[in-house]
Amino acid sequence: MNLRTLAPDAAVLSVALVWGCSFVAVQAAAAGASVALVLGLRFALAVLLLLPVALLLARRRPAAGTWRGALRRGWPAGLLLLVIFTLETHGAVRTSPARAGVLIAVFAVVVPFAAALRERRAPRWGAAAAGAVAVGGVALLLGPGGGVRTGDLLVLAAAVVRGVVTAMDGDREDPDPLRSTVVRLGVVSAGSFAAALLVPGAADGGLPSGVGAWGALLFLAGPCTAFALLAQRLASRRTSPERVAVLLVTEPVWAAAAGVAVGERLGAVQVLGVVLVLGAQAALRVPWGRLRAAGATRGRGATRAPVAETTGALAEHSVSA
């Protein structure tokens, strides 16, 4: 493995790492604070970090799209992301980081079922098997010690909504995904601030307090959102989507590790549940057939085909991590 291959792989793996740690950061940022205000601040800061990059790329590639088009494409998806983030963040502060990080991965299992419903066909047997494995894993994860918490149900609801949205939006091409992503993040921020102002009790707790809480908020806005988007965008130009999928599937592992690092304890049964959910996610998200084909092609000495950008897919995932 040379540096040309190692650098993008390391970037994508670091994205999976910060996403896994994000649930610890969410709890630190929102401890005693208003979830709506935390979300509004997180995505406002992320927009401020990404907007200069989007403006620079727009000047270099004026034919790629317009802000008006990005607004038209981005605001409906932004409203859906607002729902996902609200459920996920409220859930994350009401359960443990490891449980939240593993449960949100269930979205990958929902995608093929939602796609089958959209296409009015039965799910493929592989997806059905993976779904059964994931359900068993969730039951093991939530069963022993403490039972099902309100936060677990909220995170699972966020995973279901994200899976449905991903399935319904998966075949749409975006000529300017970075600009559309900036719009989506802006909608999430504006919607969160609006909820804090208009929904009774949504602003209770106020802003984050303390250096630790603000540090966690900056971590969520920077590494977990802005950095993740840019790192994936750059890496997708230098490696294959298959390699990206393999590396990103490690996110629940990092989430569980982060939870253990801050004092969470997982018994043997719960660890088995984590493994089952991870296995189901890997079976559905990693294109194993194309990986084998790519390996055979490299073995014959052929060159790799150009890699399409995957920033749009990242936007659906990374900003909800």
From TrEMBL:
One of its GO terms (cellular component) is plasma membrane. It comes from the Bacteria. The chain crosses the membrane at residues 40-58, 70-87, 99-118, 125-147, 211-231, 243-262, 268-288. Keywords: Cell membrane, Membrane, Transmembrane, Transmembrane helix. It is a multi-pass membrane protein. Residues 11-142, 150-280 form the EamA domain. It is found in: Cell membrane. Belongs to the EamA transporter family. This is Drug/metabolite transporter (DMT)-like permease. It comes from Kineococcus xinjiangensis.
